[in-house]
């Protein structure tokens, strides 16, 4: 399978499939495709699997697209201004991702719900307890908010991140929540009460503009309804 990512801040991944090759995405995730691509929708993993995906930010139903003859083309656009990250996972290699980040993958990739074990991270880490986990082998495409900044953390190295900016990590990265120190920092620093501590070894992909930050910046400009006196 060959692919190309186009579109700038509103990206799309365009994949070229040979006969017999398949990809899957959440229901409604496909943008356009050639006529030799066959579509099959089902609730993978049964009702429990569908509900678990719903809680992780995806749809209950997943759709598989298979090239039936020759060379086929299929495109998966992002759902929010940002970036599409491409990973070619080895057998058993996994990534932990924020909710809603899964865009599409080769059929050999496994998508499942990942539950954070740390209570503090679940409540104050910006993304809650429920994350997504993708495991190879195969190519997987993740969408993030804004641009992607990658860090490789050495053993014991710590990176402090504002909650919500953590998009993807490798499983060995340890995630903890720490409280911002100092009265003035808490009330006037603009960063809230908590920060996320990421401890290596491992790799981290940060997003520059989380969707919740965009929402906060837009709210003051929305028209306010006037109550009748």
Any key phrases for this structure?
229 residues; mainly beta; Double-stranded beta-helix; 6-stranded antiparallel beta sheet; 4 helices; 47% strand; globular
Measured between the Cα atoms of the first and last residue, the distance is: 63 Å
Number of strands: 19
What's the tally of helices? 4
Overall tally of structural domains: 1
Mean pLDDT figure: 82
Give a structural overview.
The protein is mostly beta strands. The protein has a single domain, classed as 4-Layer Sandwich (Double-stranded beta-helix), CATH 3.60.160. Helices cover 13% and strands 47% of the residues. It has 4 helices and 19 strands. The protein has helices spanning 46-55, 119-124, 183-188, 211-218; strands spanning 2-6, 12-18, 22-26, 32-33, 37-42, 62-67, 71-77, 82-89, 94-97, 102-106, 110-115, 130-135, 138-145, 148-153, 158-161, 166-169, 174-179, 194-199, 202-207. The strands form 4 sheets. The chain has a 6-stranded antiparallel sheet with strand order 5-6-3-10-13-8, with no helix packed on it. The chain has a 6-stranded antiparallel sheet with strand order 11-12-9-16-19-14, covered by helices on one side. A 4-stranded antiparallel sheet has the order 1-2-7-4, with no helix packed on it. The longest helix has 10 residues, at 46-55. The radius of gyration is 19 Å and the shape is globular. It starts with a strand and ends in an 11-residue tail after the last helix. Residues 46-50, 119-126 and 182-190 have low confidence and may be disordered.
